[in-house]
Specification:
- InterPro entries: AA_adenyl_dom (IPR010071), AMP-bd_C_sf (IPR045851), AMP-binding_CS (IPR020845), AMP-dep_synth/lig_dom (IPR000873), ANL_N_sf (IPR042099).
- One of its GO terms (cellular component) is cytoplasm.
- One of its GO terms (biological process) is secondary metabolite biosynthetic process.
- GO terms for molecular function: phosphopantetheine binding.
- Pfam families: AMP-binding.
- This protein is globular.
- It has three domains: 221 residues, Rossmann fold (3-Layer(aba) Sandwich); 130 residues, Rossmann fold; 106 residues, 2-Layer Sandwich (GMP Synthetase, Chain A, domain 3).
- The chain has 14 helices and 28 strands.
- It starts with 45 loop residues before the first helix and ends in a 10-residue tail after the last strand.
- The longest helix is centred in the N-terminal third of the chain and has 19 residues.
- The strands form six sheets. It has a nine-stranded mixed sheet, sandwiched between helices.
- It has 573 residues and is α/β, with parallel strands linked by helices.
Length: 573
């Protein structure tokens, strides 16, 4: 039966977690510090810090406490330009909190909009806001003005913090460069959140064209930290690389989460060039690599260089956020046999990651995507058919609905959209993911495609994600974008853009599709791009590729394979 229920409450959070969720973690390893205890000079293991119920009560504003207790002077975070110790981060957080409280009157649950660049001060700023009980609300510094204005209008922030001089934002604006990095303030006593108070808001694309603010509670975050670290296994000795922009929720996973355990995090803010990324992985002796599928594909552009000798300390590789070609996953799983390789899944609305699959051994020749796996501890999963009935038969496709303590509070200032996405069944709140999935006989879930990726063309229902998955089954294809394209004559057809170095890629894909799909699902227009263009979240910018295909097909009037060229000024969405 493909239905996953939460484990018994007494059995939750038994693995190494951080900021354990409200039922606590019981490992019987002796006494632990409480929020009122002095830190002292003795070295303590992370297990000792995070293994008992009293640590449940630690405020989010004490996020750096483990690092301070273990080694306050240890390098905590760095990029190409700066490096901060845990003591530095705590001082920054206290300084920022003091300034924002005194000069800006920031109070508990005030929303603070942070116009983010990928710099090392951002985690300290997030912790500063949590010290005050405020809501951390990061947005992209490169957002178009109209989109940023729409977010500001809906979110009504108490303060806007920027990294640049920005005018006419309609709220109190503070330039981060003006915030003090040291001062005469004392340690700020962190605010003690209730579990239902909002910790952060991440904005995602809205169906109405207005970005949706996903509100994640303190309880959501604690539950997630506890459950996901059973898979990640971060410790104070971990060395994590972050490729993720701070306005994307994976930054909580790859930066704030390891920092809270006393681990080191390197912020990669260089160009998306495989050679540079690989060099950084080796130089920084990275143990944990978390990368969306597009970024992992870029790092993998020289397969012969993905070896245990190149990355001797790498313990874990995790990918997700979009379908990853099985050939890329197989590369890492086969070349680094000592590393755990995961394919994971999770919408922003269910706190970053909620399902995961460990590739126990690479399946050479696999052409279908790897499963997204089983739910994390505390996550409940059901599949619903088109009539709202629950699917319990293996391998039958339905909409994936996710329940449990990681489900968001709702969309900011949008009760209608919240009501459309959240529902209750059996006393459990569920989120409708909009993703079509199936569950196999082993209890592993498989992503099939988006509900809204299903189109109707010439009277036939077609799932574009199915076509994309078949394109990615060809090993010479790094990424693929499939969608509806308007021809120069005004007719709507299916178009596909392949990111590939080999000129034979389109013919290989066509041959595969001819054996796997009906004729009406085979794309009419084809394009080939030699480079992967990343969107703002670090994923493949499929809309940009398809737009370029439509535009260049219009110029040439061609229905043959089109070489897609992307200029430096092409929009990135």
């Amino acid at each position: 039966m493909c239905r996953h229920r939460v484990a018994d409450a007494s059995d939750q959070c038994t693995g190494p977690g951080l900021l354990p969720c409200d039922r606590g973690a019981r490992t019987g390893k002796g006494a632990a510090l409480t929020a009122g205890d002095p830190i002292g000079d003795q070295r303590m293991t992370v297990d000792r810090i995070y293994d008992v119920d009293r640590w449940v009560e630690l405020p989010l504003g004490d996020l750096f406490r483990a690092g301070l207790a273990l080694d306050a002077g240890k390098r905590a975070i760095a990029d190409r330009k700066v490096s901060y110790s845990f003591e530095d981060l705590e001082n920054l957080a206290n300084g920022y909190a003091s300034y924002l409280a005194r000069q800006c009157n920031v109070r508990p649950q005030d929303r603070v909009l942070v116009i983010c660049r990928k710099v090392c001060q951002v985690p300290a700023l997030a912790v500063a806001l949590w010290k005050l009980g405020a809501v951390y609300m990061p947005v992209d510094a490169e957002l178009p003005a109209a989109r940023l204005s729409a977010i500001i209008k809906t979110a009504a922030p108490k303060v806007i913090v920027t990294f640049d001089q920005v005018d006419n934002l309609g709220a109190f604006v503070v330039n981060l460069s003006e915030l003090p990095e040291s001062g005469d303030w004392d340690h700020i006593a962190p605010y003690r959140h209730r579990g239902d108070e909002i910790a952060y808001v991440i904005h995602t694309s809205g169906s109405t064209g207005i970005p949706k603010g996903v509100q994640i509670t303190v309880g959501n975050l604690r539950t997630y930290f506890c459950a996901h670290n059973e898979m990640l296994r971060f410790t104070s000795d971990s060395r994590v690389i972050s490729f993720t922009p701070f306005h994307f929720d994976v930054s909580i996973e790859d930066t704030l989460m390891p920092l809270s355990l006393g681990a080191f995090v390197y912020q990669y803010n260089g160009p998306p060039i495989g050679e540079l990324m690989r060099r950084t992985l080796g130089q920084e002796r990275i143990t944990h690599l978390i990368a969306v599928s597009t970024v992992l594909t870029v790092i993998s552009d020289r397969p012969e260089l993905i070896t245990s000798e190149s990355f001797p300390e790498l313990e874990m590789v995790m990918t997700g956020a979009e379908v990853c070609a099985p050939s890329v996953i197989n590369l890492w799983a086969s070349r680094l046999p000592r590393a755990r390789v995961y394919n994971v899944y999770g919408p922003t609305e269910v706190t970053i990651v909620c399902l995961g699959y460990l590739i126990a051994s690479p399946e050479e020749g696999r052409t279908t995507p790897y499963p997204i796996g089983e739910p994390l501890r505390g996550v409940e999963v059901i599949l619903l058919d088109e009539n709202g009935g629950e699917i319990t038969t293996p391998d039958e496709t339905g909409e994936l609905c996710l329940g449990g303590e990681q489900v968001m509070a709702g969309y900011l200032a949008s009760p209608e959209e919240t009501a459309q996405k959240l529902f209750e069944r059996g006393g459990v709140r569920y989120y409708r993911s909009g993703d079509r999935c199936k569950c196999d006989a082993d209890g592993n879930y498989h992503f099939v495609g988006r509900v809204d990726a299903e189109i109707k063309l010439n009277g036939r229902r077609i799932n574009l994600a199915e076509i994309e998955a078949e394109c990615l089954a060809v090993t010479t294809v790094a990424r693929a974008a499939v969608g509806l394209i308007k021809t120069p004559g005004g007719r709507q057809v299916i178009g596909a853009v392949l990111v590939a170095d080999e000129p034979t890629a389109v013919e290989e894909v066509r041959q595969r599709l001819a054996t796997q799909l009906p004729t009406y699902m085979i794309p009419y227009l084809w394009g080939v791009a030699s480079e992967i263009r990343l969107g703002r979240s670090g994923k493949t910018d499929s809309r940009l590729l398809l737009s370029a295909l439509e535009k260049q097909a219009g110029y040439s009037g061609s229905t043959t394979v089109i070489d897609i060229t992307l200029g430096d000024n092409d929009d990135v969405r």
